[in-house]
Specification:
heterodimer; A: mainly alpha; Non-ribosomal Peptide Synthetase Peptidyl Carrier Protein, Chain A; B: Peroxisomal Thiolase, Chain A, domain 1; Peroxisomal Thiolase, Chain A, domain 1; 2 domains; 11-stranded mixed β-sheet; two-stranded antiparallel sheet; 13 helices; 15 strands
């Protein structure tokens, strides 16, 4: 099982790739929209990239609740368990 | 009538990554046509094209590039150069009034490669892997919209689509915005980027493309008896145009005057030009009339001249008719012999070449014209540059597109500074 830090680091790579955000800024307490300036279309792409990278399914109704990096990491951890 | 002048140029073409290097290569008679060495080309009947070989990453950051089709990337590179060349800044340094700033940028096809790649992804990986940026990347107005965002234009952003006449139409519409008082300054031009297996196969199926795969530099040969079709090129050319009043008020350098334009439609066939050339003739006559020019004023024509068997003959005939007895004094060229056919960006590239020809009083050559078609009756700058006379000069640039679109742009050397 991937650790929380491993998931966060991999997610940080995805956020960097899609939206150009510095990996070091992608911390659990950060809000994607308010803190990291990720727009809604980029968020869609990040969710789909996470599905592929982590081998999980993130339905659209769940994806809209993933406001912070911590929300996303927790969701991925639960989905992988 | 409000006079419209050109105050900035930007270009990224098969011949160079800026306007100056492109113009120099045109004067040098250099070909930008190469063999396509990539894997996807090896089974195609046509394996030659005029690519932009410059790495775009210094201009377009990685994250932006993921969200922007190449047709928009090229448009932005050329627009930045033109804007800066005209003496304007970006962002905080942009002192122009957005409400008086327009854009008119054409493309023949738009983000086709994005469309094809998105479909590949959808088939291979499923619906959820299709990028949410696909639509804004593929839409044909994306290059114009990106240029509008770059310079913060709010007076209107237009994106005419008329196949290979698109950017001449864009220039005509942009100049008319200024003449109608809708804007004082506009960025006008065109962009195209479809060097990909599918469009090459599709144009090849129309028997429109040269198959001279073993001699790429010699493949585009307008008016030569051994021509066998056009060569696809890619690139973008932009120009800043403004009212004479605006340019003079800020002491801008002026490359030339956009004197007028003529637009016509063949209404004959979706693909073939009307064989008598009457639609092309009408565009040239309207352009002269719009700009108050007589045939004897026209010292130069940058022809559409794509190197297709029928098209080159029809255009020679329509030029002869348009100019009448003055045709012998008019030096005609086709710079497509060097650049290939940039489709929706062709008109912008060739209007640039036409303006520079008047400014420098030298017409770029039509290369590869070893054995001209007999009885053309036009005076072609065959294989070498030709000088233009002293005094007032006027010229036409022709662009014709599938669909029967004909657009002629008239330029003069009035108001040139330095």
């Amino acid at each position: 099982m991937a650790t929380t830090e491993e998931i966060r680091a991999q997610l940080a790579d995805i956020v960097n790739d899609v939206a150009g955000v510095d990996q070091a800024d992608v911390q659990l307490e950060k809000n994607f929209v308010d803190d990291l300036d990720v727009d809604s279309l980029s968020m869609v792409e990040i969710i789909y990239a996470c599905e592929e990278a982590f081998g999980v399914s993130i339905p659209d109704e769940d994806a809209k609740d993933l406001k912070s990096v911590g929300d996303a990491v927790s969701y991925i951890e639960r989905a992988q368990a | 009538m409000t006079e419209v002048v050109i105050t900035g140029f930007g270009a990224i073409t098969p011949l160079g990554d800026d306007a100056a290097s492109t113009w120099q290569a045109l004067l040098d008679g250099r070909s930008g046509i190469h063999r396509i060495e990539t894997e996807w080309a090896k089974d195609l009947p046509v394996q030659i094209a005029g690519p932009v070989e410059t790495d775009l990453s210094p201009w377009i950051p990685r994250v932006e590039a993921r969200r922007m089709d190449r047709v928009s990337q090229l448009a932005l590179v050329a627009a930045r150069e033109a804007w800066s060349d005209a003496g304007f800044g970006l962002g905080e340094q942009n002192q122009t009034d957005p409400e008086r700033l327009g854009v008119s940028v054409g493309t023949g096809i738009g983000g086709l490669v994005t469309t094809l790649e998105a479909w590949d992804v959808q088939q291979a990986k499923g619906i959820r892997r299709v990028s949410p940026f696909t639509v804004p990347m593929l839409m044909a107005n994306a290059p114009a919209a990106h240029v509008g965002l770059l310079i913060r234009a709010k007076a209107g952003v237009h994106a005419p689509v008329s196949a290979c006449a698109s950017s001449n139409e864009a220039i005509a519409l942009g100049a008319n915005m200024l003449r109608l008082g809708e804007a004082d300054i506009a960025v006008v031009g065109g962009s195209e980027a479809v060097i990909h297996a599918m469009p090459i196969a599709a144009f090849a199926q129309m028997q429109a493309l040269s198959r001279r795969n073993d001699e790429p530099e010699r493949a585009s040969r307008p008016w030569d008896v051994d021509r066998d079709g056009f060569v696809i090129g890619e690139g973008a050319v932009m120009m800043v145009i403004e009212t004479l009043e605006s340019a003079q008020a800020r002491g801008a350098k002026i490359y030339g005057t956009l004197a007028g334009s003529g637009i016509s439609a063949d209404s004959h066939d979706l693909v073939q030009p009307e064989p008598s050339g009457s639609g092309q003739l009408s565009a040239m006559i309207k352009a002269m009339r719009h700009s108050g020019l007589q045939p004897s004023d026209i010292k130069h024509i940058n022809a559409h001249g794509t190197s297709t068997p029928q098209g080159d003959i029809t255009e020679a005939k329509s030029i002869r008719t348009a100019l009448g007895d003055a045709v012998d004094e008019t030096i005609v060229t086709s710079t497509k012999s060097m650049t290939g056919h940039l489709l929706g960006a062709a008109g912008a590239l060739e209007t640039f070449a036409t303006v520079m020809a008047l400014k420098e009083r030298v017409v770029p050559p039509t290369i590869n014209l070893d054995n001209p078609e007999p009885d053309l009756g036009i005076n072609i700058a065959a294989n070498t540059t030709r000088e233009l006379p002293d005094g007032p000069l006027a010229a036409l640039n022709n662009s014709f597109g599938f669909g029967g679109h004909n657009v002629a742009i008239a330029v003069t050397n009035q108001h040139i500074t330095d």
